[in-house]
Amino acid sequence: MRLHIKNVSHSYDQVEALRDIDFGIEPGEVVALIGPSGCGKSTLLSIIGGLLKPTGGEVLMCDQAKPEGCLNPLTYVFQDFALLPWRTVAGNISLVLEDHALSKSERDDRIAEVLAQTNLSDFADAYPKQLSGGMKQRVGIARALAVRPAVLLMDEPLSALDAQTRILLLDEFSDMFARTGMTAVYVTHNLNEAVRLAHKVVALRRRPGTIKEIHDIDVPIKDRVEGMPELIAHEQALWALIRDEAIAADKELEHVA
Ligand SMILES: Nc1ncnc2c1ncn2[C@@H]1O[C@H](COP(=O)(O)OP(=O)(O)OP(=O)(O)O)[C@@H](O)[C@H]1O
Prior knowledge:
23% strand, 9 strands, AAA+_ATPase, ATP hydrolysis activity, ABC_transporter_ATP-bind, alpha/beta, transport, 2 domains, ATP-binding
């Protein structure tokens, strides 16, 4: 499915969060949204996902192409996992399937499939409190994949995890994108994640959030490895783009605190 973010603007009462954001998301493309705190990344993701209606512009689905068996074209992966503690891993995944007309065996097959894809098959009956943060986020990914989305919307999915787990999951995300050719929008503060995962990085400036630059990364995702000179160069270029505003945003937050 191709999306067109067409002249999207959004204001929260007096706060102009986004102004005239315009870009396309092609099928199979991973787009990272980066920029300083408060530049409107999460607002834009919510608008793309249909959780928030923009005060100007629109998000167009330019075609209806969806993966076979797609139950929900736009699906979220949350920073804080958003798992129900009283449900098992399989039960948490089942939750997103229960409102759909699937037989029990179809549901069980889908659950088994996404558990296998996320290396969780042995943990189907575990409860969230028994899992590490990295495992919980794998469940978040499995739950999102269970509906076979056309576009995966990921809001800082690694930011609640410790450094080692981030490295491991970043490798897994990279494998997943390379293997499945999935379309995704990935919000992050972390430029290393952006250059490992994205074909296209949309850098926003703040007050109001506008596009500063759309930066293409033409290294195939399957060939990207940590520390690769091309990726380091892209990361440095992105940092040069947002550095001054990131510092300004940080000072402001310190001041507020
Ligand atoms: N519900 C809301 N009501 C009022 N203002 C809001 C609301 N949500 C966000 N804002 C404001 O809109 C602007 C953009 O916020 P948003 O959370 O989208 O930015 P962000 O880039 O995702 O920030 P961060 O990187 O810190 O998560 C900020 O100035 C923020 O204070």
